Predict the structure.
Amino acid sequence: MTASAGDGPVEKYLDEMFDRLAGTGPAGRRMLAEAESHLLAAVDDGRDRGLDADAAEREAIERFGTVTDVVRDVPVAARDVAGALRRLLTGTWIAAGIVMIWWGGHGVLAWLLGWPWTKLLIATDRFGSQPGMCGRPWVPSNPTVDCLTQHRENLYVVIEGGDRDAYPFVALAGLLLLAAWLLLRRGTVLGAKAWTPSPVALGLGLAVPFGAAALVLTAYGISGLYWQAQAWTLSYLTAGLLAAAVSAAAAHHVRASSTARVGSRQTVG
Amino acid sequence: MDVKGHLDLLLLAVLADAGSAHGYAVITALRERSKGAFDVPEGTVYPALHRLERAGLVVSRWEQATPRRRRVYELTRDGRLARTAKQSEWRRFVDSVQAVIGPVAAQAGA
């Protein structure tokens, strides 16, 4: 029997797997035992083919796959309260990132769309509801501010009158949150099953509230459109449509994961 | 070649022919019988074997073989039935696809 060195690649790999299997209980212990047996057998084969110990261990690990790939399908132990809290924490982390991207993103998008939107309002006299937008009493008394700038300054973002400068930073912070999670799950315990939120729970947790928000915001935006194209119409429509996109993506994720689960059951059944 | 979605059937087929086998032998058989086409990350086969066991299609036991103990797997009666059913389903699927895309000879001549 070829025992792996105490600090060799296989031993380090198994140490990492042990950490990543936290919360998986008996299934995890069995996975770890079988992984060790498999890797040692593969190292023996490599040595028989003339590889030195280090090369044989590295080859065995490479063929076995990354720890993330292997532990992904190891089920978590039932009634694991600590595991549930871990998954809740990670789910909250992801959801917070998405909410921040949505919130900041709608502000940035509304700001960018403000130019063509205002030009459209001026060109169409607010869709025919307010003739002479650039004439008195609507024109600015300050001659240094043109009609377009004047009207664009009146565009509100959600919440009406909110601090416009904060939106890009909120969106960026959300992106950084998600990027940090994606990076950390590749090389830390966050990639373990015990730390990975259920796709259905996370998907529904996003699809339902974002779907409800989409309905309310879009309806409010449309009502503003019919009533002299109010200053807040654009941002509410933007926020509503973005929320609808998030909700649709989350619902698709739920459906895809449910279909995959049913397919897996049918395959083994 | 991506075997995702077909791994369970492949494992059932290997175990049906092998009688009983440990994970390392199952993976080696999978690679050799596919002539290297199904060279999956070996570690991902174990969770699939465990899933089959939870479904009642496979049973396993630790075997104190030399030089180390190994977990040995074999099909249950349900596993053999599932293998036969899934194999028939797969052949029907292949025949149907073949009927749509045409025989190999026709493609070569096109």
